[in-house]
Amino acid sequence: MTNIAILGFGTVGGGTAQVLDVQKERLRLAAGGEIRVKYILDIRDFPGSPWEDRLVRDINVILDDPDVKVVCETMGGKEPAFTFTRAAMERGKSVCTSNKELVDAFGPELTQTAKAHSCSYLFEASVGGGIPLLRTLRDSCRHEDITSVAGILNGTCNYILTKMDREGTDFADALRQAQENGFAERNPDADILGHDTARKLAILASLISGRRVRFEQVPCQGITEVSTADLKSARARGKAVKLLGICQRNPQTGDISVMTAPCLVPADNPLYGVNDVFNGVLVHSGCVDDLMFYGRGAGKMPTASAVAADVVECVKNAGHTVENGLTDPDDTITPVPFPSALPGGIELLHGGDGSSFPRVRS
Amino acid sequence: MTNIAILGFGTVGGGTAQVLDVQKERLRLAAGGEIRVKYILDIRDFPGSPWEDRLVRDINVILDDPDVKVVCETMGGKEPAFTFTRAAMERGKSVCTSNKELVDAFGPELTQTAKAHSCSYLFEASVGGGIPLLRTLRDSCRHEDITSVAGILNGTCNYILTKMDREGTDFADALRQAQENGFAERNPDADILGHDTARKLAILASLISGRRVRFEQVPCQGITEVSTADLKSARARGKAVKLLGICQRNPQTGDISVMTAPCLVPADNPLYGVNDVFNGVLVHSGCVDDLMFYGRGAGKMPTASAVAADVVECVKNAGHTVENGLTDPDDTITPVPFPSALPGGIELLHGGDGSSFPRVRS
């Protein structure tokens, strides 16, 4: 039996507790032994919750308990997530996370900590939510020379664009409806300005290039300037408007180009049909050609399922560091401007090559 | 360094040699050591081939060489592939294959042989060609309670149906063009009668149910009766016609239903946009909801890339048996008729529930 702890009892943390409970038997078979939630860290009370007896408010209860072998960090944000993650790994506890902000900002440093303490730092849930993407790129595609990745990585934006396209709703109305339906936050800036997509793209670009690519290096345009006229004219040309994170890699030089922008996607590109809150990631490589991975990029249970898959891998590899694909902190790369043609017949909605887009400040 | 042998220097075997050569450096990193093709078995001569010096005609050269640790069986068919595979594993050599016929007929028996000799029998390339599907289902989704899989698993049929739909070509003409373009065999029966799809579905159903499902248990209708009128009327209803392999699983009872048939796929199903020679597999489970995997289901380099991924896994797990998801030979299950509704809004093109379709004889 392996005892684990969950940091943060919000949507993803609550979902993780639930997946670990509902799928207990399958997880036992997959991991080779029972997985038990011993603690859940939160500063709030949850009276009546079936996990009420596991709730603790002091991280040291978890850190000081040698029985806890794996920690799920589902708090989000940089602090105290960074401090808690590092402290857990310094005590040899593996950490599985959905926290893309932390992976982007300190993933390479935390990976070094994991290696130094023979434990693992895994983050499948941080990109593409429930889509089993990162492990697949690592295990099944590691021998592939990937030349591009283009992804619909933010379900909120895709929901808004789908609604504008299908119903002729303007941006403000579609956003309001997304908020009413729980698909957008009260403060939706991180989604609609493209920052969330840019962060996930930076993680993907790091994995594909084998170098460190930071969020702040991604030229970024969000969807706030997309009009119903844009969607109509795209539709008339047989194209769909999608907010994409794109990374192109030159297999000869290893140079990469990155950007986040609203794009025109032609009908023969498999991203064309990725609608509503779904995410899709199109990968191209010389040997295997096109691959596309589709699924729910957010949501309680899908995201929690990805966290659970990481927990299984940590349990199976107890005492070892699972390779997560991140490089050393200092092995950085400076992206270059995009070549003339984007992959998969994609064009920028508002023209240009994206080089004029502002970079984002964290 | 690990020495390997390739059995059969046809399309997939030749592609495997090529991928292992072109991607040598990445494969070395992925596997933790160089992978070298020591022998290629074929009865034909290939004068001028860069692999000419590795060609052997006698399987015993490979079987008797203790240096050969992994064998890629890319011959196809039951014999001599079965005898060669078993003999290799009895000598502790892992086998990676693209041979769906053999996996369907003797996969469980060969898995037992692998376990008895601490080597592995892997077959990623046998379903979905280059799509990294089986490893992903096994590693990332093993804790999921999968309730359905619906797949476009045969690129030839999808090419023909796409052509009939887009160009109004009738079945015979579309088939002829597929043959001229190298997308269909001279004897296309295994594809167009649905047998190839049924075989791949039987493998998927075995993995999902954890029981043995045989090809002969799959009710099967091919695409020979699909007319241009069918495609037009489907289009008018906003649907696409696709040859699908479908497996539905009742998570309460564990019962499964299987079938291969031309189906109507609604526009909001991600399989709707899977066209030409591409394959797509839609997976549904309670936690992660819908997942779809898209890519080239056939072709030299994509299929070979999947074989190469298996070689890497065998090399990394030398001396152990990698779990491949197949059960014991005697752990069979008898499929039950489908429940009233198919997954993902799919309907049978010609109505009914498929229970009247004939089973296929091997």
- Helix-strand sequence of chain A: EHHEEHEHEHEHEHHHHHEEEEHE
CATH architecture of the largest domain in chain A: 2-Layer Sandwich
Q: In order across it, which strands form the biggest sheet of chain A?
A: 3-2-1-4-5-6
Helix content of chain A: 25-40%
The CATH homologous superfamily of the largest domain in chain A is named: Dihydrodipicolinate Reductase, domain 2
Which descriptor suits the 3D outline of chain A? globular
Largest interface: A-B, 49 and 49 residues
**CATH overall fold name of the largest domain in chain A:** Dihydrodipicolinate Reductase, domain 2
Summarize this structure briefly:
The structure is a homodimer of 362-residue chains. Chain A has 362 residues and is α/β, with parallel strands linked by helices.
Task: Walk me through what this model shows.
2 copies of one chain form a homodimer. With 362 residues, the first copy, chain A, is an alpha/beta fold. Chain A has 2 domains: 2-131 and 300-316, Rossmann fold (3-Layer(aba) Sandwich); 134-296 and 330-348, Dihydrodipicolinate Reductase, domain 2 (2-Layer Sandwich). Chain A has 12 helices and 12 strands. In chain A, helix 4 (81-90) runs parallel beside helix 5 and helix 5 runs parallel beside helix 10. The mean pLDDT of chain A is 96. The interface between A and B is large, with 49 and 49 residues.
